[in-house]
Specification:
The chain has 437 residues and is an all-alpha fold. The chain has two domains: 6-205, no CATH class; 235-425, no CATH class. The chain has 14 helices and no strands. Keywords: Cell membrane, Membrane, Transmembrane, Transmembrane helix.
Length: 437
């Protein structure tokens, strides 16, 4: 069953504006990062990156998977089920923040110090976790564009404006000031999304009939799966910061930020497509979902290759502008860009495994990749430094993506191959027949 023209038009419009807003936000983040790296130097910038990485990892667990559960349950939830889901999300986030206070205090007493201080780290952690919860609830209510406007555009714009204002007042830019600006921007984003969710919730038309009330524990498998993916995305920064120190992390960050632009197109397509894919599968429109996601994967791959070419051309001027502290990163950008290119054709298998209720398989793959990747990158960092970490990731990331794709194509269920374009579905005759079913 195909989606009606109105739904297809809406998906195209959401994808177009979603990609535009995400690129705008990334451009603002890139400008902010370049300015901060240039002014602060590699060592201080690396100290900020390490603290921010910890915020991302801890903040990703604050909601206990309730946001991911909402993305699956809310589109077909009754009014009572929706209220329970909202209550579970609020309670999970509030409980996590409450438990984080004594944990941060204990870390301070134990002598574990980060450059911004644990108070600022904890504050940003709480706000970031709250923003993730609100963003997931809004996305589940089919308000993806609202999330993109606030999180992908307004929040980084506010961050850049605050940093610019601090420069006008001749304030010394360091990790502490960057975190203070980040807290203000996250607070603005949290407030706006809370207002948007309130408006959306009042206008939401609940599904007819009754549906099972969700339990908080139902989000735990989704939390484990989502957090394992988040950990994998931040693993290299964590290893470099802990093993090689802040200066090396500053160098690594400016290189990975540039190379990460390659995978952005696919990330945007996946993020915009996720709620729509959830709605399509919930409605049983599998063939329509297959066609839409296959087209999305093809466009993401083509766009990523174009971005890679631009990065290779502009990498030298980019590092020259940052200053002499960062010239050692010139050998890292080509390797990291090649890593992203090699991972592009495999699509987003993680999304398909989640939406087809195969989180346990994804979790097993991610856990193995996390343990093996942490050991491999740590050893490579000790033996060969930053080049060793980059080469290790060149082998690890495409292999992980390929493994996910292999599992997706072998999985039975509502057409698990929907995420992959036809030219990416290779393998045995049985697998090819599954992809066409």
């Amino acid at each position: 069953m195909a989606l009606n023209p109105k739904t297809q038009s809406s998906l195209s419009r959401h994808t177009f504006w979603g990609v535009g807003l995400r690129f705008t936000g990334l451009a603002l983040q890139l400008v902010t990062g370049i300015f901060a790296a240039r002014v602060m130097g590699a060592q201080e910038f690396g100290a900020y990156v390490l603290a921010h990485t910890i915020v991302l990892l801890a903040g990703g667990a604050v909601h206990w998977g309730q946001g991911d559960l909402a993305l699956r349950v809310l589109p077909k939830a009754s009014a009572k089920t929706a209220r329970r889901l909202l209550w579970n999300s609020v309670m999970a986030t509030a409980t996590s923040v409450t438990l984080a206070v004594p944990a941060l205090w204990a870390a301070e007493l134990a002598g574990a110090r980060l450059a911004p201080g644990w108070v600022l780290v904890g504050t940003l952690l709480a706000l970031h976790g709250g923003c993730l919860t609100l963003a997931a609830l809004l996305s589940a209510c089919d308000r993806v564009l609202w999330v993109q406007v606030i999180e992908a555009a307004l929040r980084p714009a506010a961050m850049l404006a605050l940093i610019g204002a601090s420069a006008l007042f001749d304030l010394s830019l360091d990790a502490t000031l960057l975190f203070q600006c980040g807290i203000a921007a996250a607070g603005l984003s949290f407030g706006l999304m809370a207002v948007c969710l309130t408006i959306t919730w009042k206008r939401r038309v609940p599904a007819t009939g009754s549906s099972p009330l969700p339990r908080i524990s139902q989000g735990f498998p989704l939390l484990a799966t989502g957090w394992s993916s988040l950990f994998l995305s931040q693993l290299d920064h964590l290893v470099v910061g802990l093993v090689l120190g802040n200066t090396a992390l500053g160098l690594y960050r400016v290189a990975s930020r540039a190379a990460g632009l390659v995978g952005l197109v696919q990330q945007v397509a996946t993020q915009v497509l996720g709620p729509r894919l959830s709605h399509a599968l919930a409605a049983g429109k599998v063939s329509a979902a297959r066609g839409l996601t296959a087209t999305s994967a093809q466009a993401a791959t083509a766009g990523g290759l174009g971005v890679a070419a631009i990065i290779m051309i502009l990498s030298s001027p980019y590092l020259q502008y940052l200053g002499p502290d960062y010239q050692q990163a010139k050998h890292l950008i080509p390797i990291m860009t090649l890593t992203q290119i090699c991972a592009l054709p495999f699509g987003s298998g993680a999304l398909v495994l989640i939406l087809t209720r195969n989180e346990s398989r994804l979790l097993k793959i991610n856990c193995f990749a996390a343990i093996f990747g942490a050991c491999t990158t740590a050893i490579a960092a000790h033996l060969f430094g930053l080049i060793g970490v980059s080469i290790a990731l060149l082998a690890l990331l495409p292999a992980h993506k390929a493994r996910l794709r292999h599992v997706v194509l072998k999985t039975k269920g509502p057409d698990p191959a929907i995420e992959f374009p036809s030219w990416a579905r290779t393998g045995s005759g049985k697998q090819r027949r599954l992809g066409r079913s």
